[in-house]
TrEMBL record:
Annotated family: Belongs to the bacterial solute-binding protein 2 family.
Chief subcellular location: other
Signal sequence range: 1-23
Organism from which the protein derives: Aeromicrobium tamlense
Protein name stated in the entry: Ribose transport system substrate-binding protein
Source taxonomy: Bacteria, Bacillati, Actinomycetota, Actinomycetes, Propionibacteriales
Compartments (UniProt record): Cell envelope
Length: 370
């Protein structure tokens, strides 16, 4: 059996979240784990995360748009909707700001990331935003950009802010996402979760929110982490389908499988269905992209937790505008939502979850201020 991985310190240090604490299994070891009262605690957390967003949670004041700025938006790779959509949103936000925005397909290749940052420096860009790109993989280039006077922001990357690293980082709550997934699975298995976790260390944020979910499952004394396995994006179409099927067949008690992001399981879920395993195992993923929501509608995926990707991109652009205006970046409070069979009908088919309200209009109110 593979070793269980501890939650990294970066996750533990995050600010407290508004979701209810999952206390039933972790704070009272003498409690009757898996009882109706315990499950109700998890159900409350999950149902809170399933609610629609009804109000704008971002900033309401800030500098007007700084005209004529040149910004590069480097996204992880156009092939994945979770990277492609933020790129499109960056172009839209850039138009609203009156900026020259260049969106670059990173092709999931650190060499492309490095080259793009150097080109931004050479072209005299004012700033660059990394989308789902680990700054540690391009540490020297990020430092060079900062030394050249560029603002370097990041979104959905969980990068550390420092003088030689990124200038700011925008991220939907890691804690809320991981806890929502764990709570849903514990609720739906009536406190008897036996989980297999697939984690992706190449992406900071997916790695972190999956580890939060894993930690919550491990803290529940009536639950068990059966096993965990790391994977890369290159494994999604080849290794993961067989890995998922083999894991379920190996342990007939396994009833939950959680993977770091939706796209990783798009090939595995059909394989699991063909093998008759989806009747036994509830699968949960993160991101809330369109194909995952379609799988929820079909009953093949139990849940996906999404941070509002396009909203988060506008938030990252807002912080870029603040820093280019000589102000500090602010907490943007990008919302999350747990999407399941219970609330999938509230989301328009054919697209991802975007945040339920007109967030773009709220940012334009700030940027258009005279």
């Amino acid at each position: 059996m593979l070793k269980k991985r501890p939650v990294r310190m970066a996750v533990a240090a995050l600010a407290a979240t508004p979701l209810l604490l999952l206390a039933a299994c972790s704070e009272d070891p003498g409690a009757a784990s898996g009882s109706a009262a315990d499950t109700a605690e998890y159900q409350a957390v999950a149902e809170k995360a399933m609610e629609p967003v009804t109000e704008f949670t971002g900033p309401t004041e800030g500098p007007a748009a700084q005209p004529g700025k040149k910004v590069v938006f480097l996204t992880c790779g156009f092939e994945a909707e979770g990277c492609n959509l933020p790129g499109k949103a960056a172009a839209e936000a850039g138009k609203a700001l009156g900026w020259d925005v260049k969106v670059v397909d990173g092709k999931f290749d650190p060499r492309v990331y490095s080259r793009t940052i150097q080109e931004a420096i050479d072209d005299g860009a004012d700033g660059i935003i990394l989308d789902a790109v680990s700054a540690s993989s391009v540490k020297g280039q990020v430092k060079a950009a900062r030394d050249a006077g560029l603002v370097v922001g990041s979104y959905d990357s969980l990068n550390e802010v420092s003088e030689s690293g990124v200038s700011y980082d925008v991220q939907a709550s890691i804690e809320d996402q991981g806890k929502a997934m764990a709570a849903y699975m514990i609720w739906k298995t009536e406190g008897a979760t036996n989980a297999y976790v697939l984690n992706s260390p190449e992406f900071n944020a997916p790695y972190a929110w999956t580890e939060v979910a894993q930690k919550e499952i491990e803290s529940c004394s009536s639950c068990e982490l059966v096993d965990s396995q790391d994977f890369t994006a290159g494994d999604a179409a080849t290794r993961l389908p067989q890995l998922a099927v083999t894991a379920a067949r190996k342990d007939p008690n396994l009833n939950v499988m959680i993977a770091s992001y939706d796209a990783a399981m798009l090939a595995a879920i059909p394989s699991m269905k063909q093998a008759g395993i989806l009747d036994q195992v509830k699968v949960g993923t993160f991101n809330g992209v369109s194909p995952a929501l379609d799988l929820i509608r079909k009953g093949d995926l139990a849940a996906s937790v999404g941070g509002a990707m396009e909203w988060g991109t506008w938030a990252a652009m807002d912080n870029m505008n603040r820093m280019l205006a000589g102000e500090e970046a602010v907490e943007q409070n990008v919302p999350i939502r747990l999407i399941t069979a219970e609330n999938i009908d509230s989301i328009e088919p054919g697209g991802p979850w975007t945040g339920d309200i007109d967030y773009a209009a709220e940012y334009q109110k700030i940027w258009d201020a005279k």
